[in-house]
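Our collaborator T.R. sent over the components below with a one-line note: 'Predict the complex.' Nothing else. No constraints on interfaces, no templates requested, no preferences about which chain binds where. So this is a plain run: every listed entity goes in together, and whatever single assembly comes back becomes the starting point for the next discussion.
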Amino acid sequence: MSNQSIKPTIEIAHLSKSFGNIEALCDVSLEIYSGEILAIVGDNGAGKSTLIKILSGALTADQGQIIVGDKSYSSLSPGKAIGLGISTVYQDLALVDCRDVASNIFLGWEPVYAGFFVDKRKMQKEAGKILADLQINIPSLNTPVGLLSGGQRQGVAVARAILQGGKVIIFDEPTAAMGLQESAKVIKLLLKLREEGIAVIVISHNLHQVFEISDRICVMRHGRVAAICKTKESLPSQIVELIMGAPDKGACVAAGVYSDEAI
Amino acid sequence: MKQFNRFLLIWDQKFSQILLGLVLFTTVFLLSLASPFFMTWDNWRNILDQSALQVIIAVGMTFVICTGGIDLSVGSVTALSGVCMAAAMHAGVSVEMAVFGGIVAGAFVGMSNGLLVSRLNLNPFIVTLGTMAVARGVALIITKGIPIYGFSREFTWWGNGHIGPLNPPMLTAVFIALLGALVLNKTKLGYYTLALGGNEEALRRSGVAYKLYKLIVYTICGITAAIGGLVVTARLNTAEPLAGSMFELDAIAAVVLGGTDMKGGRGSITGTVTACLLLGVLRNGLTILSIPSYYQQLAIGVIILVAIIISELRLKNAPGHGNIIH
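Returned assembly:
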């Protein structure tokens, strides 16, 4: 899918981030193209979440740049990230359970009339349209999202990301807490987004799923990019080896060594 | 079937208000049977006049509680704003400017609450407990503890005037309640007020300036309390530095009785107004029935406890309270 001659939708250049003595990210560079699904895998503490949080504006990097179009940014706020077309579907979905579906989809971006009043009718109409496009079935847009099933809630969070005009949509563990049927639905949704030319980043622990949907796999280890592989040209066993670090070389060898060898 | 589901949904969302309305209606009905005097206009005028002040303060409190916060300083703010107005008028300031100054004083206390709660992320209970004491202290310092009395007719009109069969406090209460309902249900401020109580983090991640909205909500509560101060001071023709004690508890009671969730996220101005009326009717009815005031206190306390128990039991099965199957 990805073609190196095409300009990336977003480029991450040499991002580093430390929390005290702990180096969460170290010189991470990555390119994301429209119409591809990039999976980010890695063990707990590999730096996946930190990377995503910097991209979505929740954290500020110590060093490095995020390049969108012709401009580069050293830090983003949540509002700015959304403005640049980077939307995130968080693992906890960031929904307001006591509010209805339309209010959640438009959270922060409510249309107003007369400069003052929220245009609820317009919200409901557009929310209904987006949900229908995504083939998410929700009985009533007036339902508080707390009453919906896991898959429906995920759908509401995705609809919000699309409404925000995301050119890049980041999914943090999209199927972690889901049953088989609902997972299948979410996967269908991700493939549909790719078809529409959106750059999709998926963080997942489920390698089987990663191989099923992704175009490229970025393996992170100890805060560095251990390797970026094309899914079609890799085997699950290789990816597992990269995640764990090759057993024969021992854990004491710095992870960075592999990055050159692996690519 | 779809119609029925819709009905269930409305029933669920409006449960508290419907129940409260029924209780109010039943109480009025029973009291009208018990006493021929109860249903006279003179008596109702009295009830509405008493409830008006509570409505004004409770509307601001509804906003704060909807964000999951609380404002204990409203009683002191009514005293402080009244004292500021009185001191200004006695210093020769015009009535309009004095009233404006008093309301600014209330807004300032509210804004301080909002800044401390939103910027420093402090617990609103403790913050407003502090500003409650500060505002009361300032009111006592300004007056040296002695009530200020004797104002122009132009000022006392706000408490004792006549507009047809009604009076200014009632109309002020109606205006504030309508404005509050409009803002809470139809504007971004209202949407974010409820979202703040539901999931503040979600609001932050959506890029909303949520701290600013929190600040505005506390400022609104300060302003409504200051307007309450105007009504109290004008009605009594006296600015009493110890006025308004326990007002915060009355306001919180009315808000909770009205179906607003103490954890935030759900709230209703209609419910708050109905609850103020119910409390007013009960106090009035118990007085008419010659029940000693000690028992009145007890009865109203029990009603508030029962209301909270009902709403908690019901909320256990409602969304947004930790029992959802994801």
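Summary for T.R.: Chain A touches chain B at residues 56-58, 77-83, 88, 90, 94-99, 103, 107-110, 112, 116-118, 120, 139-140, 142-147, 149-150, 153, 160, 177 (CB under 8 Å).
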